[in-house]
Amino acid sequence: MDLLKNARNKVQSTVNDVNTAADPTQYPNAANQSHPQVQYGSPAMKQYGCPRVPYGSQLPQQQDGNHHRPVQLHGSPPQSHYRYASAPQVNYGQCQQPPQQYLYQPRQSVFPSGVSIYHQTPLHGSSQQTQSPSREVPQPGKNYQPAPRVHPMHAEYTHKQLPTPVLDTHERFQHLSPPPPLTSRRPYAQQFPQYQQQAYQSPSVTLPDLASLSLSSKCIGKEPRLIDYVQFYVLKPEVLRGSYVKPLDDDEVTLCESCFLSKIAPNPGIASSFRALEKKPTDPSDSGPEISYDQLVCTFRLPSILSLFNKQCIPRNTITPIVEYLLSPDWSPCTGSEWVESTGQTYYSAKGQGIDNFGCCETCFKLYLRFTSFEGYFNPMSDPPNPNALWGCSFGVHPYTEQVVRTELLKRSPDFRYLVSEIRERIEIPPCPGEGNAIAPGGAEDTYFYEAEPGKSGIFCRECYFDCIRGTVFKHTLGNYVQMTHEQKGTVACDLSSSFSKIAMEVAARANDDEIWRSVMSTRTKVPRCVGISGLDEADFENQEQEHGSLDDWYCFKDFANVEICPNCYWTTINLVGAKHLFTPITRPLRPGVIRMCFLTAAADPSADVGDPNNFENTLAWRGQMLRATLNYGYNAGENFTPTLAAASKISKLPPPCGSIFRNFKEPNGRKWLGRVPAISHEDPNDCQVFLCEECHQNIVQGSLLEPELSRDLTAATHHITDGVGCMAASKRAKNELRDACQKGDLAAFAHYRAKRLEVFKRKMSLNAEMNRHANMQRKGMAVLDMENAQMGTQILMNNNAAMNTTITGIGGSVAQASSNNLYQVGYTSGSIGVSGIMGTMTSMQSRALALLEQGKVLQAEWAAIQ
Question: What ranges does the record give for the region Disordered, renumbered to this chain (predicted)?
Fold first, then answer.
């Protein structure tokens, strides 16, 4: 089941949770770097398991009307009708009852021998061939006024504390006979093969002390949790051995401790198939935090799997039905939030139930609706392929759909009519206009939005309210539904339109305190941007302090003063995860020339393995990712920031990070420089001068064949360099070249690389200078041309006035004759003042500029390759 594993792998990287959400316009590790983005909670999952999508995603737009397909522009996405897979419309309230039949038809076990479960085409044959009507895209500013309904959200599960059995009996799964009908609750041990009858009989169980158990209050739900914090249970390896073509991995059926104790443990025959996932110690050590950063989700969060467990696994006392179900060959990933071309996809629609524009993919149907009390309301359908139409799965495009389906199915008496009303209202909501855009333009029709209760700030478009607030504890305090006034149209924007704002709201909802969201959002707009790898000279602090005041303060760990954090990352990351108590403001006197670097710098690839610094664009980003991962761990582990302190301890003992290609360092920084200065002329192609920062020397040179030659202390020699010194192994290419030379003991190889790089650099600078000179000439030429145009206009106007006066005052003249004269036939020619010469010069200059641009492209590619 590669799809489950892919989804699990996506959520294993907790660095995604603490990274990339503060500002979508950031430039990682550059001087103009903005807010490093941070995520806490579940990352988006578009594949098998949990179709999470980025909140506030834009829907494809269409023209008004449903009968004419708009023309697609070349090079643009289809600007056409889009639709959900849908069904014919009926009046709301006329919900048809599902047919009286078994919700699950018995089927033969797994696959024929030799058939791969990963390379088969999904079934498309049995669905009705019905053209689903296109729907109008809800647009901001139009009148959409569904009556908001308040419905209590119930807890996902009710638990009782149960012991964890220690079982020694293991089940082997082979081809099974057809399972019994779901309506029967009696065990059918006599229908099973002999080995299954043995598995059904309860083995002897040794129960642990109840005091050693830590049952959570409820299932963790769809949110991924750290495996070092939440106890997970996975299938034993021997359970999956059998005749399957490609079995599941043992950790692809994962249960949280709460679900295991409340549902699995009371059934010893099933419990014997699971083992507790081992946790790693989190005690601090010099080698860094001993944590895995892996996250898992609970398989029982999926209504279909939980229903299958109750209807088949419990009566048969075996986990086999779930394993077989997940091994079926017709799984395919959900498209998630993506709108894709309508290619005749098979989908499921609630035909005739009042939600005409609802349609879910086969995978989401199997995860959320199959085996449930809602299954009978949905039928498979398929539309003819239409390249001018776009299709999207309702579960992926609208996160609220998945939420309301799960919540309703977990009730004692699920209400399909309520589900219909909620889904229909969500589908009709127009998309969020996006950050910086008004919810409704000026002059729009009646528009409604949500706002916070009186006395509190917060305005939310209907889409963001449904997807980010409606299912939380804030659904009432932030759910005041009001009509927009005429003055508000064109001016009021959604406060949840940015990704950072949505993440801050998730954190606030988790803490049941909406003031967290307000505080973070208010502060974020006032703090300076993160400086990243380029750093900030302390000489510039005074100007920044005048602009930002006390929010300009930098911070460091209380126990590790050399691990510094910029004000942006402190207020948007440290503050958000509740780790402010670990830090203190930096109060040392300012020294011009000292460069401060933020050790929470966001990495370009937040999923990179922090175990190897070479996986990152620079070692500062590696440090930042390590700290962010541990901060996220602490946030998800009940504010246990022990791994964060261990990581900070490790970082504090390292040399200062290399400045990469972005920064030179002067004497006040107190940096140590090592390398060599040739004894002979620098013109020797097999020799070169080498300046290395302490970090690169330690990571690359120490212990190599060239360590004796490249270990001279050159610190004092750098003090007289006015512009400061940069490391000669600043880029990844330079580091690799130096590493190869050190491993081979071949300094000449690195000297040749340095000579070639210097030659390309000189040509690049020369071309840049030529292009700047040419640009200045063009600007001067344009100024002259503008002046000549102004003179020409004045001359034409004067000549035309003179001609009109002559015609009017002449014998037989008239105003009509004067007005019929061509303005450009009054004795003025462009050549009279040299305009034609200027135009020729400008044309020549333009041709030269184009040639320089082409040279620049070639040289830039050469420079990028040697960097």
Answer: 1-83, 117-147
